[in-house]
Amino acid sequence: MAQQNLPFAAHLARIAPDTAPWRTGPPSGTTARLLLATHHALTTPLDQALPTGPRVSTTAARTRSTAPDTAPPKQPAPTEPAVPAHRQQTAPAPRQGRGR
C-alpha cells in the first residue's frame, strides 16, 4: 500500500477507536479479533464501513450446507453391456479342427 501511495495510516486508524468491535470479548480471543479487524481495515475501501464480523463466502457456505439436496438422484450406470442377450458371448468359442 505504501508503494502505491495508498493511505495506509488512514486504513489502520479505523481500528483504533475504543468502541472498535475487536476490543470486546474474552481476552483469549483478542489476537484473532485484532488480526481480523486489521485485515478488514486494509481490504475495505475507506468510503465503506468496516464489517463487524467475518465475511461469508457463499460458495463455501453452500459446500458445507446440511440442507437436503434438491437435485434429482443420479441414475446408476448400467452394469451390463447394451447387447441383446442372444448376441452375448458367455464362453470362448470352441476350436474348430486340429490346427495342423
Q: What gyration radius follows from the Cα positions, in whole Å? A: 33 Å
**Strand residues, percent:** under 5%
In sequence order, what are the helices and strands, one letter per element? HHH
**Percent range for helical residues?**
25-40%
Mean pLDDT: 75
Number of E strands: 0
Structural class: mainly alpha
**Biggest sheet details:** none
Please give a structural write-up:
By secondary structure, the chain is mainly alpha-helical.
Task: Provide the descriptors you would attach to this structure in a database record.
mainly alpha
Write the layout of secondary structure elements.
Elements: H1 8-13, H2 30-43, H3 58-63
Task: Summarize the structure in short.
The chain contains three helices and no strands.
